[in-house]
Structure formats: C-alpha cells, structure tokens
C-alpha cells in the first residue's frame, strides 16, 4: 500500500514528537511492505513567522491532496512576542480550527485509558483507579460555540462580547451515529453529555441523540448534565465507556479524562469526517518550556499514528504492532520524564522512539 501523509509538525515539541511517529511509520512500512511518503507543511506559530498566517492556503490544499494528516502541536509560550497581541483570527489556535473545518473533520475521538503499567501515575484514590479507566470522548468538532457567530459591540453597560452555541439536526445526527457505532464495537453504552436544563441547543441535542438511538437498540443510552459529568469523571470514571458531547464540553471533559489517567503524554486522538482522510494528533499541547531538549514523550503521537493506520488505512494488524511495541517498552520499565517513577529507567524522547521502533 502506498500512502501520502501530510505532516504538520507545528510548534514547541511538535517536530520532536512527529519525528517519533514518522520513524515508527517508516518501520511499519519496511516490515509490512507499505510505502509511506511524508510531506512537511507549515501551521501554527512557525507558519505565522514565515507567511503571516497560522494556516496558509498551500497547507490546506496539500492536506486535501493527502491520504491523511499527522499533526504535532501548535501554539507558543505565554508572552511569545511572535503571537502577542495578534487578533483572534490570526492566532495559532485559529489555524487548528480552520484545518478542522477545511477537512470537514466533525468527529473527534479522544480515548482516555489507564495503562496498567502507569497506574501509579493516576491522581485518583487507589480504590477508584483500581476499577480502571477506559473511555472514549466523542467530541463534535466543527460546530457549536467554536464556529458560531461572535462579536463585540457597545451597550449601556459598556463594551460587550458574545459567542453563539448553535447546533442543527444534521450535525447532531452524524456525531451521534459515530458514537453509537463505536459503542457497538465496545461495551454498548453511550453517555450523552449536555446542559439541557438550561440550554436550548442542548435540548435539541438530547432529542436528536434519542432519535438516533432508536436505530441502535442494542446500545444503552444515558443523558448526563455536564456539571455532573465533571464530577462523575473523578468520582467513578469506570462508569464511562463512550461519551458523546458538543465541541466545547468535549474540549473541557477530554482534558479532565486525560488528566485522570495521569499520562497526558500518552493519549492519542483522531479527527475524521465523511472520508477516510483524517487528522491524527496527540491530546497534549506544544509544551514550549521543554521544546528542543529531547524530553518530550513521543508516545501520544506514536499512538496517534497507530490510529491513522487503523482508521484511515484499514491496517489493523499494523496498528496493533505499534500498540504492542509501546506496551512492551512500558512493561520493560522505560519511561520519559513525564511518566517517570522510582525504580524505572529514565530515557530521552528520541530513545523512547528507538526502543519502540526496535520492538516492531
Ligand atoms: C484541543 C485544543 C484546541 C481546542 C484549541 C488549541 C483551539 O484545546 O484540541 O483540545 O479547543 O479544540
Ligand atoms: Mn483542549
């Protein structure tokens, strides 16, 4: 199989971690007889520096021409003079929103799993962690308040600003279907999260989720209010399997879900739309404080590459080979600084990549 992969390494630790994923994909290619080509493109602060905008049209065009996209991370440090005082639409984050919209990536899957070898890193009480954490946040990614009308104006109370949360039936239906189909491959349980006691958009969300649910009688669906969900995630995370929610609630809850696994440096994600062309990226950010020091954990990006193999290229066996190599390295006790604990072997980011590549 021959595939063309667009690489948006981005900022901070982005280039180090995408290098790790590329090395792994190259090894998979050699071992299983596939040819992966990589095309590096600008996005984020590095794109702003060179072109004045966070996501140049050329990058969009080349991503659209690719089979899939691998993304590192975008964003600069607080106070970075290259992005200080930039208007909202020229900030690096705007580039990320624009690529999601341009590629039509409405479905963002964020699995949060407690790796047995890292159970010690879980910040929750041991009896709670012992029940395990293995959930997927299905986050709607191209609608809601992130893309609704926004603006500023003047009122009697001074300047005002507003953003709009808005969802239509089609947007809710297609993301609900993704969640139910995923649930059929897992524990057949969907928890839909909203704020239907207050928001009209959430009331429509809830209504439509239940309409879609009728086509999946084998899946149990429960509604949960977002404030309660925030609490339940730390009280009893084992109750969650597939969680489906809006863009902004998914943003917030997926960080919480990642944190309770204790290893944000380990968590991958996929963003897909109507085609097989997806965007795969780690959940963590650009970590400018440790950039260039070979300290960053490449595993989240490597596991994102595994998701690409499985979900965009239908290479399930190859994806499993990557996941098994990661598990093996962890079982052997190798740790980057972010997941290090006493008695384990501390390694640099590039060493971690090499250990994984050698086990494929
Ligand atoms: C994420 C990030 C982005 C988001 C930002 C950087 C725009 O927080 O992918 O979760 O809010 O979607
Ligand atoms: Mn986020």
Automatic annotation (TrEMBL):
Subunit structure of this chain's protein: Homodimer.
GO BP annotations listed: L-leucine biosynthetic process
Positions with a binding annotation for NAD(+): 285-297
Record-linked NCBIfam families: leuB
Residues at the site labelled Important for catalysis: 146, 195
Substrates-to-products reaction catalysed: (2R,3S)-3-isopropylmalate + NAD(+) = 4-methyl-2-oxopentanoate + CO2 + NADH
Species annotation: Candidatus Borkfalkia ceftriaxoniphila
Binding residues for substrate: 100, 110, 139, 227
Cofactors demanded by this protein: Mg(2+); Mn(2+)
Pathway(s): Amino-acid biosynthesis; L-leucine biosynthesis; L-leucine from 3-methyl-2-oxobutanoate: step 3/4
Enzyme class: oxidoreductase
GO CC, one annotated term: cytosol
Gene Ontology molecular function terms on file: 3-isopropylmalate dehydrogenase activity; magnesium ion binding; NAD binding
Binding annotation for Mg(2+): 227, 251, 255
EC number, UniProt record: 1.1.1.85
Stated name of the protein: 3-isopropylmalate dehydrogenase
Function, in words: Catalyzes the oxidation of 3-carboxy-2-hydroxy-4-methylpentanoate (3-isopropylmalate) to 3-carboxy-4-methyl-2-oxopentanoate. The product decarboxylates to 4-methyl-2 oxopentanoate.
Chief subcellular location: cytoplasm
Pfam families on file: Iso_dh
Keywords, alphabetical: Amino-acid biosynthesis, Branched-chain amino acid biosynthesis, Cytoplasm, Leucine biosynthesis, Magnesium, Manganese, Metal-binding, NAD, Oxidoreductase
Family membership noted in the UniProt record: Belongs to the isocitrate and isopropylmalate dehydrogenases family. LeuB type 1 subfamily.
Ranges where the Isopropylmalate dehydrogenase-like domain occurs: 4-356
SMART domains given in the database record: Iso_dh (SM01329)
Subcellular location: Cytoplasm
Cofactor note: Binds 1 Mg(2+) or Mn(2+) ion per subunit.
